């Protein structure tokens, strides 16, 4: 599951209750989270400038220090705390821990700096945490192959890579929108199912724009191997995770 940074603060306690309920039924959620708004706020307080190129944050070492501090520290621990309040067990870590996420510079690193594309995920480590009865909560900071250089990784991209390497069948993207919207007869409607080809058309036409582009691109990249579908849902919907798993037609399903 990918949990957006802007969504987190708005998630009701029942969302985490739902997660505990699922764990008791033997379904364990692996969470990869973002933290964009909190990172921007902290950068602003510290007077560090940072822009975006196609939804990716321009990252130098100074920005990376703040990214790591906010993601691995503040946000990661907040999610762990909220899960544990329900009585479930959670363990927070970042892609740096145990070489969990290895990365290389993105293709346009000349524009965005120290942003990474995932090359490897230590799936055994995640599986080990799950086997011990904990819900893994992962901050998307990665390491280069040599283990020296850190990279800021888009949370959607990181979640897609984790899902692929774990070999799960479904990835859920929890956001603050009800799914992929399309204007039909002047009204915005949620598309229940959309194919990879249709998404490419919607990006070209401008129906999908801004921060939704990296979301759907990561979803497309994730639909490989055993991952059959990605579901984009609004986290404030009651029992949203259970509804997704029961296939009650909530959100937008992205399929091959």
Automatic annotation (TrEMBL):
Instruction: Please report the stretch or stretches of sequence annotated as the Aspartate/glutamate/uridylate kinase domain.
Output: 1-234
Protein name in UniProt: Acetylglutamate kinase
Site (Transition state stabilizer) location in chain: 2, 215
Source organism per entry reads: Paenibacillus violae
| Purpose of the protein | Catalyzes the ATP-dependent phosphorylation of N-acetyl-L-glutamate.
Q: What class of enzyme is it?
A: transferase
Task: Tell me the keywords, alphabetical order.
Answer: Amino-acid biosynthesis, Arginine biosynthesis, ATP-binding, Cytoplasm, Kinase, Nucleotide-binding, Transferase
Q: In which pathway does it act?
A: Amino-acid biosynthesis; L-arginine biosynthesis; N(2)-acetyl-L-ornithine from L-glutamate: step 2/4
Looking up Pfam families in the UniProt record yields:
AA_kinase (PF00696)
Q: Which SUPFAM superfamilies match?
A: Carbamate kinase-like
Q: Which GO terms describe its molecular function?
A: acetylglutamate kinase activity
Localisation: Cytoplasm
Which reaction is the catalytic activity of this chain?
N-acetyl-L-glutamate + ATP = N-acetyl-L-glutamyl 5-phosphate + ADP
Q: Which InterPro entries match?
A: AceGlu_kinase-like_sf, AcgluKinase_fam, ArgB, Asp/Glu/Uridylate_kinase
Q: Which gene underlies this protein?
A: argB
Instruction: Identify its protein family.
Output: Belongs to the acetylglutamate kinase family. ArgB subfamily.
Highest lineage ranks of the organism? Answer: Bacteria, Bacillati, Bacillota, Bacilli, Bacillales
Residues recorded as binding substrate, renumbered to this chain, are 35-36, 57, 152
């Amino acid at each position: 599951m990918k949990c957006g940074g802007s969504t987190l603060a708005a998630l009701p306690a029942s969302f985490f209750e739902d997660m505990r309920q699922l764990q008791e039924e033997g379904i364990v959620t692996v969470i990869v989270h973002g933290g964009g708004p909190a990172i921007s706020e902290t950068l602003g307080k510290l007077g560090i400038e940072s822009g975006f190129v196609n939804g990716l944050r321009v990252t130098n070492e100074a920005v990376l220090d703040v990214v790591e501090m906010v993601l691995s520290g503040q946000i990661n621990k907040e999610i762990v705390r909220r899960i544990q309040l329900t009585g479930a067990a959670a363990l927070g870590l970042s892609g740096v821990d145990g070489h969990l996420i290895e990365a290389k510079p993105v293709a346009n690193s000349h524009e965005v700096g120290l942003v990474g594309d995932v090359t490897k995920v230590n799936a055994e480590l995640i599986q080990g945490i799950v086997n011990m009865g904990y819900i893994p909560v992962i901050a998307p900071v990665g390491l280069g192959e040599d283990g020296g250089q850190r990279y800021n990784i888009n949370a959607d991209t990181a979640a897609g890579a984790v899902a692929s390497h774990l070999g799960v069948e479904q990835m859920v993207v929890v956001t603050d929108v009800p799914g992929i919207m399309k204007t039909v007869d002047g009204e915005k409607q949620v598309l229940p199912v959309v194919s990879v080809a249709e998404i490419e058309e919607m990006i070209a036409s401008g129906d999908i724009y801004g921060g939704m582009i990296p979301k759907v691109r990561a979803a497309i990249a994730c639909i490989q191997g055993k991952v059959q579908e990605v579901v984009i849902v609004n986290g404030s919907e009651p029992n949203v995770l259970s509804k997704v798993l029961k296939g009650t037609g909530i959100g937008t399903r992205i399929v091959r």
